[in-house]
Amino acid sequence: MDMNKEIKKLESVYLEKPQRVFSMYLNTDPSDPDQQGGEWKIHLKNGLNNFESYLKEDGDSDEKRNFWEVKEKVENYVQENEQNFAKSLVVFATADDSVWFAERFQMPVETEFHWEETAKVDQLKKMYDKFPKTGIILTQKEAIKILDTELGTLKETQMFELDLDTEDWRQHTGPHRAQPSMGSGGKSTKQEQFQERFEANRYRWYKSLAPKLDKLAKDNQWERIYIVGDKEEAADLTENMNKEVTDVVNKNMLDHEEMKVINEVVNQ
């Protein structure tokens, strides 16, 4: 999904009565102290019921029918997806299906509901300004993991691992295979030899990978790039990439769960 295009598309919508656009930002963040008991369900129910009560008083039967159709769509979506909710849910919808946008995000929102002639995209735009198309490059010795993200959501993961025999970077699609030399026990001679060789060749090896990372940045249209890893390794990558690096996080997080990494970058 191209979020910029989606936002522009939503901004162009204008509907006259009895048609209306439903806009919803729902805080579903389980780490929020106000959400410990799943209070978002109450906020959702109250938000939908408030519009229903208002429309009953308003007396426009066509508009009421349109709202009921939208309400049913939203409730069905929530019921089918609530087990996979993250920090927020954003929905834009119309009765005639000309608008349907429903996305779960790893970014917080303030809960609000609208039933108006236009889609209320202000919060979505602020979210995108904070976290546009972003590449997160994690480095840890002979392994480089790349997270393609947008609005705090993971779109794709790629891994490059250095073949120490050929000194070529190979793209690897499965889980990271730790090198035998990188065991967590006491330092062996093999580990020390690997460490010495890595430090002696790190700059050259990272320089050879940099063009691949620049191409990924171009192909994925990253507006921001973060490098996460050891200070010296991150410095080598930053120096050799043509694309500008937004910021560096000096933490070894290559083997951490992807969403934990994204949250670390979101909160920079």
Q: If you had to describe this structure to a student in words, what would you say it looks like?
A:
There is one protein chain. This protein is an alpha+beta fold and 268 residues long. The protein contains seven helices and ten strands. It has a six-stranded mixed β-sheet. It has a four-stranded antiparallel β-sheet with strand order 3-2-1-4, covered by helices on one side. A hairpin with a 2-residue loop joins strand 6 and strand 7. Helix 5 packs parallel to helix 6. It is elongated. About 3% of the residues have low confidence.
How many alpha or pi helices?
A: 7
Query: Helical residue percent?
Result: 40-55%
Q: Which structural class should the secondary elements be placed in? A: alpha+beta
Tell me the major beta sheet: 6 strands, mixed
Overall mean pLDDT stands at 89
How far is the first residue's CA from the last residue's CA?
A: 25 Å
Order of helices and strands: HEHHEEEHEEEEHEHEH
Unreliable segments of 5+ consecutive residues = 178-184
Question: Summary?
Answer:
The chain has 268 residues and is of the alpha+beta class. 40% of the residues lie in helices and 24% in strands. The strands form two sheets. A six-stranded mixed β-sheet has the order 8-7-6-5-9-10. Strands 3-2-1-4 form a four-stranded antiparallel β-sheet, covered by helices on one side.
